[in-house]
Specification:
Chain lengths: 393, 267
């Protein structure tokens, strides 16, 4: 099973952090491995996923979209219907329960789009924990509504003014806070990134997506799907969907990254497609960097994809050829956004809108296939951007 | 034995303690960094820790972050750092350590980085985001080039890992005074002295304390127990406060003399 006990997915992963954090990563790993086997913990986690977050989410046959694209069957895994509007809450619920188990009464998180920040603020409010969320100053401007939501939920949103003032800098700042307050604070990281055990733990908490999907598709179709497609920012919704299907080689995985303004520009977030091997935020994986190893700032119209790193397990999937990674640019994302809204009456988040557009590119190849898309979130948060992008009056 | 080890031997013989200064290379410009090293050496600084500016310095507080961003904006890159190191080496024999995050080393190539370090007269390497568990590759290469890799111990390091780090660290052991990032502090943790006594008991290697040190009384107390202190952010702040002023160098040197307890009318 991956990762190994040092947190490696073959060459990717590990734990590249300041010495001060080593003990609490070990503590977190030990606690998590214990909790994972603890029936009471699992029962509690499942209880909140069901009663609070709204699981299971439907696996919806998008007939109109399928017909429109000429694809046999497209199913949407409706993570957009979860409480707070995205898959992020699967992870924050798991981690907050773990934090409580460890006796930590303060939660910190980073956020880019604000979705993970909202999902963290939500569970912190519910369990009565103090919550500080780091958010780049640029992102605060772009995602005003989510900032208000976090504040309403009682979280303290701390603007990050260092570096590029976006997600990567918010993670730096969260790590600095954690180094300082490590004895009392748990850091809920928002994706399958960071030092071991985070990529494994976040994957496991998100894998409820894939496990449900497997059961549902077998019930509906009597067989496994041909393709699973998901967008990849840090990689948590994709890994949550893919990992339970890892051993079924007939199920092909496609991860869609953001090409932003184009791969030939510097304005994209396609880490798996264009990145080099390196260390960012505690893991050895692929990163977007300049020729001196300075981290570049990423860009995408979808704030949740805007990250110059990627989870080590995706780098591993890419290396062994288990998944294929492709890109869709800003324009495509807006097209995908429109397409799903018009055909199915479902307004997607800009992140999975990349995936919807990719179906269009792939339609010939998928003609006879059963395809499952992870619809990781809903689009309410993106209306400002989309209204501007599509010039809607 | 390289310059760092020789330095500590010499200090021990003289019953003196090491004073280590951190400078962000190229802050505010390469010329100033170079003169600073020379003048600090003349003023009795024992070791220079030269920071390679990085885009994402997650172990650093505001002051060093800003100095790093400033230097990057001015176009400082790894080649310029090596060039400055070798120029420094031509005019002084001061032990030089590079401080860099791990990614630039990976990008440059581990072997190439070590070769350039050796060829530029660099003696040691400090990598704040590389714990011993991940350092097997780099240690092998560093050894063959005679570069000391210096590891950290923090207040949260315990048990087996303490011994592991004491064993692996070459040159000296970098004790992080507090749980936190770099940055000057008025007060150091109350249990610092006790923690240091514990470390000194399990290792015969030199132990230097860094993070937060900004006052002569702190240093005086620490010198009773450890082999040296490392001052970073407080120096960077002094540089920052005197940016653009003609007597920047003198101000920084005076500050170091004041920290060391010299009677300089200075606050
Ligand atoms: C709706 C949605 N989808 C996807 C992502 C990307 O994250 P990940 O790749 O971890 O799933 C985000 C991140 O904020 C998001 O909000």
């Amino acid at each position: 099973m991956f990762p190994n006990n040092k947190g490696y997915f073959e060459e990717f992963g590990g734990r590249f952090v300041p010495e001060t954090l080593m003990f609490c990563l070990k503590q977190l790993e030990d606690e998590y491995l214990k909790a994972k086997k603890d029936k009471k913990f699992l029962r509690e986690f499942n209880y909140y996923l069901r009663e609070y977050a709204g699981r299971p989410t439907p696996l919806y046959l998008a007939e109109n979209l399928s017909r429109y694209l000429g694809i046999n069957k497209i199913y949407l895994k409706r993570e957009d219907l979860l409480h707070t509007g995205a898959h992020k809450i699967n992870n924050t619920l798991g981690q907050v329960l773990l934090a409580i188990r460890m006796g930590k009464r303060r939660i910190i998180a980073e956020t880019g789009a604000g979705q993970h920040g909202v999902a963290t603020a939500t569970v912190a409010a519910m369990f009565g924990l103090k919550c500080d969320v780091y958010m780049g100053k640029q992102d605060i401007k772009r995602q005003r509504l989510n900032v208000f939501r976090m504040k309403l939920l009682g979280a303290n949103v701390i603007p990050v003014e260092s570096g590029s003032q976006t997600l990567k800098d918010a993670i730096n700042e969260a790590i600095r806070d954690w180094v300082t307050n490590v004895r009392t604070t748990h850091y809920i990281i928002g994706s399958t990134v960071g030092p071991h055990p985070y990529p494994m733990m976040v994957r496991d908490f998100q894998s409820v997506i894939g496990r449900e999907t497997k059961e549902q598709i077998i019930k509906k179709e009597g067989r496994l799907p041909d393709y699973l497609i998901a967008c990849v920012g840090g990689g948590s919704n994709a890994m949550g969907m893919f990992s339970p299907f890892f051993k079924y080689k007939q199920v092909k995985f496609i991860g869609v990254e953001a090409a932003g303004k184009g791969l030939s520009t510097n304005r994209h977030s396609a880490t798996l497609t264009k990145g080099k091997k390196g260390v960012l935020h505690g893991a050895y994986s692929l990163v977007l960097e300049d020729r001196f190893g300075q981290i570049k700032s990423a860009y995408s119209i979808a704030p949740g994809l805007d990250y110059p790193g990627v989870g080590p397990e995706h780098a591993f999937y890419k290396k062994i050829g288990r998944a294929r990674y492709v890109t869709v640019d800003d324009k495509g994302a807006l097209e995908g956004f429109k397409l799903l809204s018009l055909t199915e009456g479902i307004i997607p988040a800009l992140e999975p809108a990349h995936v919807i557009f990719y179906l269009n590119k792939l339609k010939r190849q998928l003609k006879n296939s059963i395809v499952i898309v992870c619809l990781s979130g809903r689009g309410d948060k993106d209306l400002d951007i989309v209204v501007k992008g599509l010039k809607i009056k | 034995m390289n310059r760092i080890e020789r330095k500590f031997k010499e200090l021990k013989r003289k019953r003196q303690k090491a004073f280590v200064v951190f400078l962000t290379c190229g802050y505010p410009d390469l010329r100033t960094t170079k003169i600073l090293i020379k003048e600090l050496y003349r003023a009795g600084v024992d070791i220079i820790e030269l920071g390679i500016p990085f885009s994402d310095p997650l172990a650093d507080g505001k002051l060093i972050q800003e100095s790093s961003a400033y230097a990057l904006k001015k176009g400082i890159d790894i080649f310029k750092v090596f060039k400055l190191a070798s120029e420094t080496r031509r005019i002084t024999s001061i032990p030089l350590c590079l401080l860099t995050y791990y990614n630039p080393i990976i990008c440059f190539g581990l072997e190439r980085f070590m070769r350039m370090s050796r060829d530029s007269g660099v003696d040691g390497l400090i990598i704040p985001d590389l714990p011993p568990e991940e350092s097997k590759d780099i240690l092998k290469i560093a050894k063959s080039y005679g570069i000391s890799v210096i590891f950290f111990i923090s207040p949260t390091t315990s048990g087996e890992r303490l011994k592991l780090i004491c064993n692996l660290s070459r040159g000296f052991i970098y004790y992080v005074s507090l749980t936190g990032v770099t940055g000057p502090r008025e007060k150091l943790p109350v249990d610092l002295i006790d923690n240091l006594k514990k470390i000194k008991k399990i290792t015969s290697k030199p132990v230097c304390v860094g993070f937060g040190i900004s006052r002569p009384d702190q240093i005086k107390r620490l010198y009773k127990i450890v082999d040296g202190v490392i001052v970073g952010s407080a120096i960077i702040k002094k540089i920052k406060d005197n940016l653009g002023k003609p007597d920047l160098i003198k101000k920084v040197v005076d500050f170091v003399l004041w920290l060391r307890g010299n009677k300089i009318s200075y606050v």
